[in-house]
Structure formats: C-alpha cells, structure tokens
Design a protein that fits this description.
The protein has 163 residues and is an alpha/beta fold. It is built from six helices and five strands, in the order βαβαβαβααβα. It has a single domain, classed as HUPs (Rossmann fold), CATH 3.40.50.
Length: 163
C-alpha cells in the first residue's frame, strides 16, 4: 500500500488538499496520513519560544480529526497526526520517519521578497523530501470540482489558520 502524506495548515488551500488526498488514495490504493504542526508562539521577552495555547492545539486537533473522519467516510484509509514545534524541523523529521511515497501540500504563492525574508515551507520540503511532492496552489478555485470540495470540507468547520 502506498503512503500519501498530506500536510495540512488549515489555510484556504485545505479543501483542495483534501480533494487531492481522496483522489490519490483511491487511484493508488493508498493510505493517507494527515499531518499538522502547531508552531510555537512568537519569541517572548526572554527570547524563548512560548508554547502554543492549549485552546489552539485542541481546536486544530478537532479540525484535523474532522478532516480525517470525512476522508474515512469516503472510504479512504486515513490517520491523523498533530505536533507542536518548529514547522519545518518537525515536518522534515516526520517525513524521514514515515517515508511517504508522495507528499501533498499547499503553496500560498507569496512573492520573492517574502521568501527571502521568511522562507518557504514548500521550498524546504521540495529540497529535502526525497519523494514526489504535489504542490496545490492556494487562492480561489476556478473549476467545478475544487468548488465542490470546498463546500464539502467547509461543512466540517475547517477554517483558515490566523496569520
């Protein structure tokens, strides 16, 4: 069975990721692992990262489980894993542990200046993944299929992560 790792960040691209995960799982007879990383709060006055709030962690976990349950209801073999920590470091460690056959993730299309200053999770994953990576662009859907996926996933109560 093929392993499909889907990196969920609860942005506007999440419904399209769920749609792609379902399609890949059914086409490849694959097992989907949904993964979300809750980043630590920004550096505090003493320059140590503050932990993510328990409410945020639990909210995201509930949303992740709702996506898991939705895919399971569609006949997909699916598990969900959530972590707290540095997003890039945590994802790369988990990718190394899981050894997926393919990774599905979103791309938010920020400009070159943003990537110069902040960096890009997608670029880091592409550089280090060691397996094919499907980047699903963010933004509004233009075809009927992603719109349908948006409405199906929106019914789960999945909302974008705050910036």
């Amino acid at each position: 069975m093929k392993t499909i790792l889907v990196l969920i960040d609860f942005s506007d691209v999440t419904p399209q990721l769920v749609n792609q995960a379902e399609a890949f799982a059914k086409a490849m007879n694959g097992a989907v692992t949904l993964m979300h990383v809750v980043p630590p709060w920004p550096v505090a006055v003493d320059f140590t990262p503050a932990p993510a709030s328990l409410d945020e962690f639990q909210t995201r976990q509930s949303q992740l489980f709702a996506v898991r349950d939705f895919l399971a209801g569609q006949g997909v073999n699916v598990t969900a894993r959530q972590f707290e920590g540095s997003v890039m470091e945590t994802l790369l460690n988990q990718i190394e542990e899981i050894h997926p056959d393919v990774i599905i993730m979103g791309s938010h299309g920020h400009g070159a200046f943003y990537h110069l200053i902040v960096g890009s999770i997608a670029a880091g994953i592409l550089k280090h993944a060691g397996c094919p990576v499907l980047l699903v662009p963010g933004g509004s859907a233009t075809s009927a299929e992603p719109k349908m996926a948006n409405s199906r996933v929106a019914a789960l109560g999945v909302s974008p992560a705050p910036l």
